[in-house]
Amino acid sequence: MINYSPHFTPKDTGWIEVITGCMFSGKTEELIRRLRRAQIAKQNVIIFKPAIDKRYSSTSIVSHSELSLPSVMIEKPEEIIHLSEDAYVIGIDEAQFFDNTLIDVVEELANSGKRVVIAGLDQDYRGIPFEPIPQLLARAEFITKTLAICVACGNPADKTQRKTATQERVLVGASDSYEARCRKCHYIP
Known about the structure:
Layout: E1 15-21, H1 27-40, E2 45-50, E3 60-62, E4 68-70, E5 72-74, H2 78-83, E6 89-92, H3 101-111, E7 115-121, H4 133-139, E8 142-146, E9 148-149, E10 156-157, E11 159-162, E12 178-181
Parallel strand pairs: 1-7, 1-8, 2-5, 2-6, 6-7
Antiparallel strand pairs: 3-4, 9-10, 11-12
């Protein structure tokens, strides 16, 4: 994990931070931690989440451990540009639920001097890279990969195991539908 000391914080420029990993690895908790620190520093922060994600709240990002921060639900990444005009720090949770237009939006924000902090799954339930996260990782100045604990064997987990037979790529769910698995214990249903 990046240690944000004065020597690592960019000056007079925008940048992109991506927090990624499997489900239950603490991505949203880390996003909330960083955004709370920005708020304590009196930086203007705005947070976005995709409208498809109504698991815990429609007005906040919420971690599986129930940490939360108020957020704005949006349908399309393009909405972020207008809604974040006055913000210095922009948080985006569950970025894997947005299409690839998020890439250009994030680039535009960072190029305009804003700090953009993104959290999202890097792989789908089959272990296939989950766009747009791989493209965002390639453009980010700071990357954090979080690991969970495999529920089957206790090893570090970087895979999301789907517990249902549904074959659709996007299935919004929590512990009812998914669990964390390591490489050895992960299988495609």
